[in-house]
């Protein structure tokens, strides 16, 4: 059974452990191994971010955050980030998390959602976000230093809500 | 005589006053009138931002900051922001500030520069940045709530250094 719910303080250690393993791979997030727990928490867990976690049969399987992408005159556009625990990949959880986050963002009054920095070689993610209604609206040439592949493009993806 | 130099603490009141007048216009920055001095300072003046100021015949005429646009694996791409004092507009200072900032960014080791949120109706700015070698690489539909015009597109602009 898959459950997605708002995170509580008790979830933070799971989120932080997953964050560390994801950034260590060096193929998805700008954040790298030098990222402190405090910085990760500010991004993923602390207000204005709202963090949700996903459990599959009671086990921590993934997480996402939603937050305003800009302040003031741009704060009607949400930003979000997603991580799926490696053990639970390949079963559509990224799409499930994203669809859940779109509902949450609508409920908060956001009218659009933007991803600022989708690594172009992360084709699974690009496909998942397209499945969720996002379009590539920008391409940042060689803006991401992939751990294995060197400099690769990053994509800006966007959808109205 | 136009002088551009690194800012000192004594410059902050000028930068903050200009920041307030620019955000009040509601046609250039996501930041709006509710922005606190602390938030403005973190964006424009505090590390990792490096702030420069421009004086024309000894009078404060404008300012810019340069900072990494992303952390970790994206920190080779700089971000920058510019403001010109209304009294000194129309004489190419935006271009002069931008060209100066490109040199500073190169000196810091950045290999590209990105603007995340150029308001599409701010055609003077778009032209100035194109003159400085930037290209529009993305368009964010209705991502900016213009004070007079309502929701308008924002542009992502980029150049290698």
Search tags:
homodimer, 161 residues, alpha+beta, seven-stranded mixed β-sheet, 4 helices, 7 strands, 38% strand
Explain the overall architecture:
The structure is a homodimer of 161-residue chains. The first copy, chain A, is an alpha+beta fold and 161 residues long. Chain A has four helices and seven strands; from the N terminus they run βααβββαβαββ. Helices cover 29% and strands 38% of the residues of chain A. In chain A, a hairpin with a 3-residue loop joins strand 6 (135-146) and strand 7 (150-160). In chain A, helix 1 packs across helix 2 (37-44). The radius of gyration of chain A is 15 Å and the shape is globular. Chain A starts with a strand and ends with a strand.
Secondary-structure map with pairings?
Two copies of one chain form a homodimer.
Chain A: E1 2-6, H1 12-25, H2 37-44, E2 50-56, E3 59-68, E4 77-84, H3 93-107, E5 112-119, H4 123-131, E6 135-146, E7 150-160
Parallel strand pairs in A: 4-5
Antiparallel strand pairs in A: 1-2, 2-3, 3-4, 5-7, 6-7
Helix pairs in contact in A: 1-2
Oligomeric state of the chains present here: homodimer
Rg over CA atoms of chain A: 15 Å
- Let me know the largest β-sheet of chain A: 7 strands, mixed
Q: Work out the helicity level of chain A.
A: 25-40%
N-end to C-end Cα span of chain A: 28 Å
Largest interface: A-B, 36 and 37 residues
Mean residue pLDDT of chain A: 96
Class computed from helices, strands and strand pairing of chain A? alpha+beta
Strand order, sheet with most strands of chain A? 1-2-3-4-5-7-6
Helix-strand sequence of chain A: EHHEEEHEHEE
Strand coverage percent of chain A = 35-45%
Q: Got a strand count of chain A?
A: 7
């Amino acid at each position: 059974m898959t459950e997605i719910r708002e995170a509580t303080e008790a979830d933070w250690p799971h989120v932080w452990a997953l964050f560390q393993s994801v950034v260590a791979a060096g193929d998805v997030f700008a954040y790298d191994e030098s990222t402190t727990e405090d910085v990760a928490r500010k991004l993923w867990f602390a207000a204005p971010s709202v963090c949700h976690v996903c459990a599959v049969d009671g086990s921590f399987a993934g997480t996402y955050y939603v937050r305003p992408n800009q302040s003031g005159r741009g704060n009607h556009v949400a930003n979000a980030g997603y991580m799926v625990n490696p053990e639970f990949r390949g079963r559509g959880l990224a799409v499930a998390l994203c669809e859940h986050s779109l509902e949450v963002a609508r409920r908060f009054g956001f009218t659009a959602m933007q991803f600022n920095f989708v690594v172009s070689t992360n084709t699974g993610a690009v496909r998942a976000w397209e499945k969720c209604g996002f379009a590539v609206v920008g391409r940042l040439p060689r803006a991401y230093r992939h751990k294995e592949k060197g400099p690769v493009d990053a994509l800006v993806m966007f959808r109205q809500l």
